[in-house]
Amino acid sequence: MRSEECHCISNVVEVALYNILDRLGQARGQAILQAAMDLVSQMQRQFVDYKNSLFREGFLDDQFKQLLQLQDESNPGFVVEVVSLFFQDSEKLLNNLATALQQQIVDYNQVDAYVHQFKGSSSSIGAVKVKNECVAFRNYCDEKNRERCEKCLEQLKREYIAVKTKLGTLFQMERHILLRGGSIPLE
Known about the structure:
Blueprint: H1 3-56, H2 62-70, H3 78-102, H4 108-125, H5 128-143, H6 146-179
Helix pairs in contact: 1-6, 3-4, 3-6, 4-5, 5-6
């Protein structure tokens, strides 16, 4: 075989190998892209399932759905902002309630005012278990029953921590979907 023929054969083999490797690279890239899309789809399904479980388990009601409907592309962080404000206000109210109930002479009107405010803010985001606990709490304020008010405060704290944790998880799932280029499913 002459050197020219060897050189031509070498070039043909080199081009063929390059084409094969290029196709493998494209196939690998497509497989990676498909895997990423599958991951986002799976995360979206998990998000919807988790969100629906919060309604089924009674943590949230239709008011939260209405809040979600107010969010749009011009303000994508609206719900997180509103709920974050709820969390901030709730921490203050819980502290105020604890302080008020520790007083030697409890001002039940003040305690009731704090609970009423907590009930309103929890209703506005759809935190139904927190709202329901506030209703019971207010009844004990009307009775001026310190012991029952203290027990309600402890239960109110538990319900608040539960909904805060659940919504924190929901918002974290949302962030993970968005970071991977996905969109948040409306349902």
